[in-house]
Amino acid sequence: MGMKPGWRRVVVCASSALLACAGGGADSTGWDLPPDEDRTTTLDQRAPESPLEVAPVLVLNDGRQVQAAPPSAPVATSFQPGFHQALRASHSVGGTTTFRLRVPVAREGGRLRVTFRSGDGGMTLVRATVAQAGVNGELVSTPVPLTFDGAEGFTVAARTRKTSDAVAFPVAFRDELAITFEARGALAASTISAFPGSFARAGNHALVTDALGGTVFDRAVGVATVDVEGPTGRAFVALGDSITEGYVDTKNDTRDAWPARVEAALGVPVVNAGVSGQGFYDALAQLDGEVLALQGITDCIVLLGTNDLGDKDSLSVIQGRMNTLLSRLAPFCRTWVSTLLPKEKSNYAPYEAVKAQRLEFNTWVRGGATGPDIIDLEAVTRQPGDVHLFLDGLEVDGIHPSVEGHRVMADEVIRVLREEAGL
Question: Residue span of the signal peptide, if any (predicted)?
Fold first, then answer.
């Protein structure tokens, strides 16, 4: 049975652990409850007109003192890539040469570390610094020295990655860094020119803060990865060929390539592991050093296969190698697979075979054979009346997208990731 609120007066005596109930004497039998029809008060009617303020949760500690609940745990931080290049080629220098590479870094944080990679032979790095990049090879901040296991430089064998010690260097999202280093031997390098604002000069000049001088050297060289320590979040890597690396012409800008456009729009790193000319065989052979060596990657976008088209057994080979690639990536990242872009010609294989296999491959991808996460880049770049032709203005040579083509591709990737990846 219920009681009127006035009859429910309970006093908690914390010091003696006693409960004293008001009115609990011998005459309490006179407290008869009213008939049911008179008990019309409801919870809603008894509710206050304005919301109640809730006091903070209190915690009784070992000293038997009441204290406010501790603050929530701080945001987790970690090192994740803000820049990456696969660096499949090799560039050799006999005497010590200073390189100043201008790179955009798509991550915010307070510390960073730089990974260098040697080419097809041994490499010696004498000294390296990092600073904010200015124009024409100038620095706009004091260069901060990098160290490697506490040493100023290092020597490594062919095709070896060497990561610097972490250094305090605050960066904002999409800051432009000048990474300057003195090196000799074989340096890993990108296959295309896509880093305007970078320079090379013979001799030891890593500490120069004015324009470096020397000659323009707009290939990524030596510097494979820049990891930034910041709030842990989504981090993408794009696997592909020249279409992903960003080839448009003999002079390019990695900032125009579709991965860079996607990261700029979404505010998350989409680092570039594209290599011009590669197919599935090369991608699988180099996967450990160019992709799986990265730390903190959560998602992989795969746009690969156009260079594999043409032979009579190519389709089955491509499908098998795609499945192998996805199996190797499965423990590493969530995979997003793109359809292949229109191809208006073929440089090597019979064009009719290329056309037929590309259509079959795209049908296979759309059918879910590579998983549910699909980005249909063919659909946004093809002519409505001819699946083999690009929309006007989206290509430069019948195979490679124009800068506008990269923008259209990026817009579709952005749309899909916002809708399907929660970005």
Answer: 1-22
For 34, list phi and psi in degrees, rounded to 5: -70, 160
Residue 235's nearest CA partner among 421, 409, 1, 71 is 421
**Greater pLDDT, 71 or 345:** 345
pLDDT in tens, 368-406: 999 999 999 999 999 999 999 999 999 999 999 999 999
Q: Per-residue pLDDT for 66 more than 60?
A: no
Neighbours of 390 (CB within 10 A): 24
Q: Which residues pair with 401 in a beta bridge?
A: 395
- Do 86 and 176 touch, CB atoms closer than 8 A? no
Contacts of 290 (CB under 8 A, 6+ apart): 86, 87, 88, 273, 275
DSSP β-bridge partners for residue 148? 151
Q: 36 exposed, middle or buried (CB, 10 Å; 0-12, 13-18, 19+)?
A: exposed
Cα separation, 222 vs 229, in Å, equals 21
On the question of pLDDT at 48 being above 80, the answer is: no
| Cα(78)–Cα(148) distance, integer angstroms | 19
Q: Residue 372's closest CA among 412, 335, 327, 320? A: 335
Residues 6+ apart with CB under 8 A from 386: none
Tell me what pLDDT residue 316 has.
96
Cα-Cα-Cα-Cα torsion 413, 417, 420, 421, nearest 10 degrees, comes to 150
Tell me the C-alpha distance between 389 and 377, whole Å: 13
CA nearest neighbour of 240 among 270, 274, 263: 274
Task: Identify the burial level of 345 via C-beta atoms within 10 angstroms of its C-beta, where 0-12 means exposed, 13-18 middle and 19 or more buried.
Answer: exposed
- In 106-148, beta strands by DSSP E: 109-132, 144-145
Summarised one tens digit per residue, pLDDT across range 346-364 is 988 999 999 999 999 999 9
In this prediction, residue 72 has a pLDDT band, given cuts at 50, 70 and 90, of confident
